[in-house]
Amino acid sequence: MKIAFDPDVLFKQNMSVTEVIHKVADLGFEYIEQSPQPRLLPFYKHPKASREVIKEYKDALGETGVKISSLIPIYRWSGPDEERRESAVRNWKRAIEIAVELDVNVINTELSGDPNQPEICEEMWYRSMEELLPILEREGIRVDIQSHPYDFCENNYETVDIVKSLRSDNVKYLYCAAHTFFYDNGIGDVKKMLEYAGDALSHVIVADTMNHTKDCRYILNPPGVDATIHQHLGIGEGEVDFDTFFKQLRKMNFGQKEDVIACVSLFGYPEKISKLAVEARERISNELSN
Questions:
Q1: CA-based angle 166:171:177, to the nearest 5?
Q2: How far apart are CA 263 and CA 48, in angstroms?
């Protein structure tokens, strides 16, 4: 198991690539999970990743010994607009080339799309995968897929079924703890959901959140607005049952597998990141590596 850190909160403090990677090393992480970043893989837009940025990234990795566990490109590959979908596939092809250049064999991503048009978006997603899956398999890259709040599918069980339907070892499932209450409509049964994922589970994101389905956990105005809300808090700051989460992962021998990833992904409180990130890394290690 690789324990990684998502540096989004660091990049948003206007730190350079070099500073970010050195900070990740200072926090005690051996791996970095590179999330969307304007100079590398911006949200929804064509990848940038100039020669200069790639050189700086590789130099900083060499200086610190940190490695990249995975890249996170987010594109509108499930439409619902066909022109946007075609652009997203082009972006995906370039992101795969960048992964190969950085010697990264795991890409994780979201289903994206429009929750108000789930049937069309699912059709669009399969159309994109018809084109991308042969490339992923040829390059030896695994794509780990999560359903994200406001994706065309937010449900754990349905997303696992979508992933498994491709019958490819290069497509696996990612469980994000911070999305737990979207995955089963507020029940939060992490044991049942992880069990259902089974051998398809290759990636977990570790962060806490409140149960948005409970009355007044969040107050959003105007009421009924077409949006979703969640958080990526430190373990214990929300309502996810992490004791059961880690117990089930141990039962599945998750921590003993070489090719899986557990990523610490904390947003919103940069002033506490040094403390919360280390605590999360140590909790993962103690629960799953020993």
A1: 120
A2: 24
Contact status, residue 210 vs residue 239, Cβ threshold 8 Å: yes
Region class of 260: left (phi > 0), else alpha (psi between -120 and 50), else beta? beta
Q: Which residue is associated with the tokens 């997203």?
A: 88
Strand-strand pairing, 261-264 and 201-206: parallel
**Sequence-separated (6 or more) residues with CB below 8 Å from residue 91:** 44, 45, 46, 47, 73, 75
pLDDT at 223: 79
Kindly state the helix (H) or strand (E) to which residue 31 belongs, with its residue range.
Answer: strand 31-34
What are phi and psi for residue 232, nearest 5 degrees?
-125, 85
- Identify the CATH assignment for 2-289 out of 3.40.50.1820, 2.120.10.30, 3.20.20.150, 1.20.58.60: 3.20.20.150
Neighbour tally for 248: CB within 10 Å = 19
Is the preceding omega at residue 80 within 30 degrees of 0, hence cis?
yes
Rounded to a whole number of angstroms, the distance between the first and last alpha carbons of the chain is 11
pLDDT band of 190, cuts 50, 70, 90? very high
| 142-146 vs 201-206, strand pairing mode | unpaired
Domain ranges of the chain: 2-289
Please tell me the predicted confidence (pLDDT) of residue 268: 86
- pTM here is 0.97
Tens of pLDDT, residue by residue over 241-263, are 999 999 999 999 999 999 999 99
If you average pLDDT over residues 142-171, what whole number do you get?
Answer: 97
Mean of pLDDT over the chain:
96
CB of 206 within 8 A of CB of 263?
A: yes
Q: Is the dihedral of CA 133, 183, 31, 40 positive or negative?
A: positive
